[in-house]
Amino acid sequence: MGGAPGTRETDLLAPDKVVQEVDALVLSGGSAFGLDAASGVVDELRRQGRGFKVGDQNVPIVPAAILFDLLNGGNKNWGKNPYRSLGKTALKNAATGFELGSYGAGTGATVSGLKGGLGSASAVLECGVTVGALVAVNALGSVTVGDGPEFWARPFEMGAEFGGRDYAGCYNAGFEPHPEAQLGENTTIAIVATDAVLTQAQVLRMATAAHDGMARAIVPSHTPFDGDLVFGISTGKVDLPDPVFDPIRLGHGAAVCLTRAIARAVFEATLADRDVFPTWRQKFG
Question: In this structure, are residues 216 and 259 in contact, taking their beta carbons and an 8 Å threshold?
């Protein structure tokens, strides 16, 4: 829904396309250079025998999205583009447990005035279906209210996953953002996943609904200078008890998880050399 996306193989995800499943999804930093991370994933998946079968060949299907983090203070004098190798290494080290904050696609991410990062959150719905979100937050807008520590996502926090603070401040309905200083350095990219049995069209609807979660956590979101994108995944393990209304609850759950994940990404960010912005913890304790 942003105006400046950087993507690979996203057109084939439409419900009317031949390919109905993917082998991997890639979220990466590095702007256009980062799209090459998907090439490294494709190489490794092909070696593993994964992919869309065409005759005696396997063609791994790996859509990807990137964010712009080339002005975050790190060394960009690569010589050879490192992202193909980084993608292959990431696939080899894929695991159910992973770090949040300044890791992976969130390593060099920033938001308005703070370091961004990689965030995740999940929930189990009353119907027994699980939904979760993974997000790299590099937004033009702000995830906190004004100059204070309050997260826009605060009403959706579970436990103390991004501080659990009892904020005394109020949210200013007349707030007008002034993000001009960061134009061209942005994009929030995410994956929302569920174990529910869904059609491809239903997965698309879940991903669309999840964008509401982005809008609740980032102000402003979906700007002309953000490439905001949400991938949807269904592993197809659990039937929905109510096929009419459970998809509505699933879309809502995906949005809430994405809201929480965005705040967690910024809350968990850690210091690094040459940072251009402080972390949330460094600034607010």
Answer: yes
